[in-house]
Design goal:
The complex is a heterodimer. Chain A is mainly α. Chain A has 9 helices and no strands. By secondary structure, chain B is mainly α. Chain B has one domain: Helix Hairpins, CATH 1.10.287. Helices cover 75% and strands 0% of the residues of chain B. The longest helix of chain B is centred in the last third of the chain and has 31 residues. Chain B is elongated and about 50 Å long. The chains are: A mainly alpha, B mainly alpha. Chains A and B meet through helix 1, helix 2, helix 3, helix 4 and helix 5 of A and helix 1, helix 2 and helix 3 of B.
Amino acid sequence: MIPDLLFLLFSAGILAGGALVALGKNPMVGILGMLLAFLNGSGLFILLGAEFLGLLLIMVYVGAVAVMFLFVLMTIDIDFAALREGWAPYLPLGLVTVGGLATLLILAVQGTALNVGTPVVNPEAPQNVVALGQVLFTQYAVPFQIAGLLLLVAMVGAIGLTHRPRRDIKRQDVTAQVTRKRSEAVVLTNPATGKGAYPDHWVGKGVEKKR
Amino acid sequence: MLNITLAHVLTLSSLLLSLGVAGMVLNRRNIIAILMCLELVLLAVSLNLVGTAYFRADLGGQIFSFFILTVAAAELAIGLAIVTLFFRNRGTIEIDAADLMKG
C-alpha cells in the first residue's frame, strides 16, 4: 500500500522533472527539473532496494552535476530563447519517432513474463551496501579499476581542454634553466682598447653594439 | 489499488527515455539542453536496471547502474568542457555552428 503510493509519487516527480527539462524555455528551469527528476529517482532507487545507488545519485547529480551545469550556464552569456526557435519543422518527424519509440517500449514491457511482483526478501541477506561491496571488490574488481581510470582520464581531459596558460606573466622555466649550456651564457672576451666589451655575436640579442 | 510489478517500473523508464529523446528533438540547437536530456535518458536506463535487479533479486543490475553513473559523470565533465571551449571559440553554443567539418 504505502510502497505503491510512494512509487506513484516518485514516478510523478520523475516525469514532471523530465517534462521541465524537455519543455522548459529557460535552461535554469531545466536544471531545476533535472534536480527534481534525480531526487525522485533516488527515492525510487531506495524504494527498490538500492540504497547505496540512491544516495550516490543525490551526491553525484545534485552535488556535482547540477553545480557543473550551473557553473557553465553562469559563464555562458547567451540568449537561450533564440536557440529554441525553429523547432516546428522538426515536430512531426520528432513526434512520430518519439511516439513510436514510447509506444513500442510500453507495449513491449506489458508482456506477462515481466509481470513479476515483489520478491521475497531474505532476512538473512546482508545490507545493500555490504552486498554491493562484496561483489564490487571481488567479481567486478577490474571494471571498478577501469571506472576509476576513466574518471581520472575525464578529469585530466576536462582540465586540459579548458586550461589556458597565461603568456603575459614571467615564470621560472626549470627545464630551460637546467638544459642551458655554459657556451650560451658565458663569454670570455679580451676587448681591444676603445672597442668595448661586447662581442660581435651578442649584437641583435638585446645588446646594442657600442662604438 | 495497484500492486507494483516490474512492468510498471519498465513503463516508467520507457516514458522517461521517450521524454529525454523528445527533449533532444525540441532543443536540438542547444548543446546544454541536449546534455541535460542525455542525463534523463541515462537515468531511465539506470532505473530499468535497478528495477530489474530488485524484482529478479540479482545485484548485477545495481552494479551496472553504478558504472553507468560513473560514465555519465565522466561524459558530462568532458562534454561541458567542450561546450565551454566551443563557446570561447565561436561565441555561441548552437549546434549548427559546429560546421567546420561540413558534416
